[in-house]
Design brief:
three-stranded mixed β-sheet, 3 strands, rod-shaped, 3 helices
């Protein structure tokens, strides 16, 4: 981990970005006080959750119809 001042970060930003892209973490400080951390950008992976299939699937009216007797018996263990 490297710490640089704001002034140095402004003059060497491209070099600092290259170092971060290679995996190094860079801290930018105001005087001796750390204020910012440069880390590589990693896009967030979409999270599946409630409503994530909205518009992709549908339930037809036949879903609500009673099962035929022979199929119902199979579900009931018969």
């Amino acid at each position: 981990m490297t710490t640089v001042t704001i002034h140095k970060a402004k003059t060497e930003l491209s070099k600092l970005i290259e170092r971060v892209e290679k995996g190094e973490e860079v801290i930018i400080a105001r005087g001796k006080t750390p204020v910012v951390r440069l880390v590589p950008y990693r896009p967030e992976q979409p999270q599946g959750g409630f409503g994530s299939m909205k518009g992709r699937a549908s339930i037809g009216p036949e879903f609500w119809e009673p099962l035929p007797e022979d199929e119902l018996k199979l579900w009931e263990g018969g």
